[in-house]
Amino acid sequence: MGSQLGRLAQLGSALAVAGALLAPTAHAADEFEYVAMGDSAAAGPLTPNPDPNLLCFRSRENYPRVAARLIGAKLTDVSCSGAKIKDFSGRQHGIMAPQYDALSDRTDLVSVTIGGNDVSLVRSAVSCVNLLPDPLGSSCADEFTAGGKDELAERIDALVPRFDEALAQIRHRAPNAEIVVVGYGTYLRPGGCYPKEPIWARDADYIQSSVDKLSAMLGERAAAHGARFVDLGPVSVGHDACAAPAEKYFEGVVPTSVAAPLHPNAKGMQVFGRTVAEAVQRTRS
């Protein structure tokens, strides 16, 4: 009887060891979990291979998807075209789950591109379109800076506390994650390229300088919160909407490839995804 009990005990121990070997590994050795948050600059509206969630005009070839493949991450992409910071905690379109809901203590990486819609950058750029050459029309730069003020710069300054709160919330909800803030790129070269892109030279410079101010603010606040900043401005120089179709990363007012006007195209998303992946891999190595 004693020998039988001994053999049963040995069998039980063997089964326990086998079970432990076959059991799922702990999260520390499990999939690298990546959550992508943000607006259309992350979502990639109208670029090829659309996500079934048509409300967000999200592409399966946007920079989060590209970066996730390169770093071998399990991606939860909640970026959504038209998103503002309020949509991180609220229901965009009245039905989309808050973007914060994707975060947890299991999240290893969070990327976020946000702010363009909060300061109405695309709408402002569209207001700069002039079909007739200077001076047969009105300058949006003159209108935005009338009276010695800079309306877009003031909007960007006013966004700081809301972005600070967003970064604090991301840190709170994903305490173990690396946070990567991804800026906006070089949409228009100095002086623009009128009439190829129907925006006067001074208006092109004003809009791009406003994009640069927004990105600079995002970078400064990222550093203040211990997050990494990925600046897409330098990597997109020479690949703006004025570039040849084969070279551009951003589409202009009239796209020359499948992408939304004034947004990254598939080529741009590939480059931006690699840039984000390289930044993350430097941290992990």
TrEMBL record:
The cross-references to Pfam families, in alphabetical order and at most eight, read: Lipase_GDSL_2
- Keyword terms of this UniProt record: Disulfide bond, Signal
> Could you provide one GO biological process annotation from this protein's UniProt record?
triglyceride catabolic process
Tell me which residues make up the SGNH hydrolase-type esterase domain.
36-271
Specify whether Signal is a keyword of the entry: yes
Active site annotated at which positions? 40 (nucleophile), 263
> Which residues constitute the signal peptide according to the record?
1-28
Q: Which residues form a coiled coil?
A: none
List all disulphide bridges recorded for this chain. 56-80, 128-140, 193-242
Transmembrane helix as a keyword? Answer: no
Instruction: Kindly give the Gene3D superfamilies that the UniProt entry links to this protein.
Output: SGNH hydrolase
Kindly list the GO molecular function terms attached to this UniProt entry. triacylglycerol lipase activity
Report the protein name in the record. Answer: Lysophospholipase L1
The upper taxonomy is:
Bacteria, Bacillati, Actinomycetota, Actinomycetes, Pseudonocardiales
